[in-house]
Structure formats: C-alpha cells, structure tokens
Amino acid sequence: FIPKLKQHILFCLTHPDEYIEDKEFEQEQWNKVKIASDHVYVHKSPHVSYTTYDLRHGEDTMNPHTHSDVMVLKCNEADAHPFSYARILGVFHVKVEHEDLLSMPQDIDVLWVCWFQVSTKYRSGMKCKWLTRLSFVKGTDAFDFVSPDIVIHGSQIIPAFVWGPTDTLLGCSVAQQTFHMDILDKNFSWLKEPEMNDYLYHYVNL
Question: Are strands 57-61 and 47-51 parallel, antiparallel or unpaired?
C-alpha cells in the first residue's frame, strides 16, 4: 500500500500534467516522499464533472460501496479499446512533504483502485453487437493509485453470471466480494456458509 502510494505521489509531483499507466521510480527517490504525521485522510466519495455525448455538462458521484466502478482514458492510443476500467476501493487525501520538490506541504487527492483488463480474445463493440468483457487483473498488479482528475465518469460494470465466480484472480483481498453458496453437509442438510469469490468476467453496460 505505502510503496505504491508514494510512487503515485512522486509521479504527481514530477509530472503534474501527465498520466502514464506504467510509472516506476527507484526506492531512493520515493523514500524522500514524506506523508505529514503519517496520516491518510479518508473520504466517502469523489465527485467528477464531465461532458455528455450531446455536449452538455454532467456530474457523477462515485462511492466505494454502492457506485464504485469508473472509466479512464488509456494512454496507449494503439490499443483497440480506448478506455481502462477500475473499481474504487478507497478515497483519500494526504498532506505531502518533499525536501527537493516542495517548499511547503501540499495536499494530494488519490483514489485506491483495483484494475480490470479487457478480454482481448473476446470480440466486442458496436460492430459485433456484444458488450465489452472484462476480468480483474491477476495478483497484486491489480491494485494501484490514480488521481481523481483522470476519471472520466462512473461506469456500470455488471457480472457475467453465466461464467460463475472464481478465486484465482485477486486472492484474499479487500476487493473480493462475499457470496453465500449452498453447501451440502454430511447430514444431508443445506447450510449457508460465506465464501470469498469474484466473478470470472464482467461486462461494461452501455
């Protein structure tokens, strides 16, 4: 959590007007990033403004519990799909100090997210008349920090129920959802026990 947070903060300080998906700094560099009082301030929801398809002003409020999925523009223009999708896990702001880059502490807003990836082997889009299919990025690479400024607006991402749940993507993490599944015990009676799983695939609802 902290190393990735400092990586993101350092990128915001050195490239305030850019967004790059792959950002890496040496440990010596991000060790200079100091979080004032070691305090991360938690917020309930971010608020973004955007331009609608008919060129009107729109506003969207996301919430990590009820409306947590967002879309951002991809950096690589060569990709077939122009957007990236993420699920917000937390909304924070930190007061940052840096001995070389800042003369005084600076507030930085961040979103802690879990990334989806577009299924490249699945045909989708307007021409195919199929919704874009997503899956969670596997392992710890799924988790990262982004600036609220790059969020276009919220996105409705729905589970692909036909493929069922899986426990092979995120593992045991705060991003996992809890399902209750019927399990037959030795006495042939049905029990309700919680299992931690995520759906294997999701669709971007239009």
Answer: antiparallel
**Residue positions counted in the chain:** 206
Task: Quick: pLDDT tens for 72-112.
Answer: 988 766 677 889 999 999 999 999 988 888 888 899 999 99
Dist. CA 118–CA 75, nearest whole Å = 15
| E runs forming strands in the chain | 33-43, 47-51, 57-61, 69-73, 83-98, 106-118, 133-136, 143-146, 151-154, 157-159, 165-166, 177-184, 190-199, 202-204
Q: Specify the residue for token string 């700094």.
A: 25
Range of the domain at 32: 2-204
Nearest to 25 by CA among 17, 41, 14, 34: 14
Kindly report the CA angle at 91 between 62 and 118, in degrees rounded to 5? 65
Q: What is the pTM for the complete model shown?
A: 0.81
Residues pairing with 70 in the sheet: 86, 154
Report residue 11 as tokens.
Answer: 């990128």
Strand partners, 143: 114
Tell which residue, 5, 8, 27, 6, has the closest CA to residue 16: 8
Q: Which amino acid is at 108?
A: I
Structural domains in the chain (count): 1
